[in-house]
Inverse folding.
């Protein structure tokens, strides 16, 4: 039984090899993405025992995704193959300033048909941690129900639940996205948000105040992902840690926030304190942003340890 499982949506990634509008790109580099897939592969590369709950299409992309999971030691026993729907795909294009833009072909994908009946209570309850995200909730009503079922089953079994808001306004109405977030909040032990998430969900409330509201009234950790500036971690006892980012030559931030979340929960599961987990997660995210693609540049634990040892310690403030 894996220690860490995720429920969500895998995507085939096709990234442009040259800057410019997507229609002008002649060559693409293939890879993998999807926020929970990014998270899961990052955790596996760091040494976690991982499993995925999802659907893929009965197509070359779906079969290749399962093979990729297995090559990385990820349990694919809960990855179902759907003969009626396709594996989701997204394209990444870049501006001359290396800003990336995404184009998705995910509507009616196999993963969007994930349902509550696909969640095995024993699989979820046997893990140490379950991870889910707002994107998984937003791609379809049935997937939203599956995420809610998985989180509720995990919570009832004593499994730690981590949740990344990952708000995408293009995927639903503001009312629906907020409903899904605050519903998930009642079931989560570790909550990740970005500054953009906070602005959307809490009407431009300062990040620090939003974290106070997230941890209010329930034992949990709240983590604000601040990109190159690092992260801010809060707990329900009133402790706050601001952890500065690590210095890297960042070339592509695709998936870096997902890898950050994987680094944080992996560190917590190893018994590290919140500030230690934040420093470690910052390093994982920074190293991921120093390469091209969501999954290909994700570091191993040894690479993270060597990177952290080579730089001056980032000193937390509390």
């Amino acid at each position: 039984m894996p220690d860490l499982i995720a429920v969500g949506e895998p995507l085939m990634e096709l990234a442009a090899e040259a800057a410019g509008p997507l229609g002008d790109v002649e060559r693409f580099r293939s890879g993998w993405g999807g926020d929970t897939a990014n998270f899961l592969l990052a955790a596996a590369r760091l040494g976690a025992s991982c499993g995925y709950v999802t659907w893929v299409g009965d197509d070359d992309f779906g079969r290749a995704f399962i093979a990729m999971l297995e090559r990385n030691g990820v349990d694919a026993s809960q990855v179902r193959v759907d003969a009626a729907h396709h594996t989701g795909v997204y394209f990444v294009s870049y501006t001359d300033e290396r800003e990336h833009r995404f184009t998705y072909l995910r509507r009616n994908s196999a993963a969007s048909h994930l349902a509550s009946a696909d969640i095995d209570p024993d699989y979820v309850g046997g893990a140490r941690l379950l991870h889910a995200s707002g994107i998984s909730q937003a791609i379809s009503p049935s997937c939203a129900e599956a995420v809610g079922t998985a989180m509720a089953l995990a919570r009832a079994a004593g499994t730690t639940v981590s949740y990344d808001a990952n708000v995408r306004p293009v995927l639903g109405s503001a009312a629906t996205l907020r409903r899904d977030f605050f519903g998930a909040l009642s079931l989560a032990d570790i909550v990740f948000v970005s500054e953009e998430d906070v602005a959307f969900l809490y009407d431009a409330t300062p990040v620090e105040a939003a974290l106070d509201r997230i941890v209010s009234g329930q034992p949990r950790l709240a983590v604000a992902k601040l990109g190159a500036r690092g992260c801010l971690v809060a707990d329900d006892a009133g402790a706050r840690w601001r952890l500065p980012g690590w210095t890297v030559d960042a070339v592509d931030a695709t998936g870096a926030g997902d890898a950050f979340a994987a680094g944080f929960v992996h560190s917590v599961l190893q018994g590290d304190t919140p500030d230690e987990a934040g420093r470690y997660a910052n390093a994982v995210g920074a190293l991921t942003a120093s390469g091209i693609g969501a999954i290909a540049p994700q570091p191993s634990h040894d690479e993270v340890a060597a990177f952290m040892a080579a730089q001056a310690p980032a000193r937390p403030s509390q």
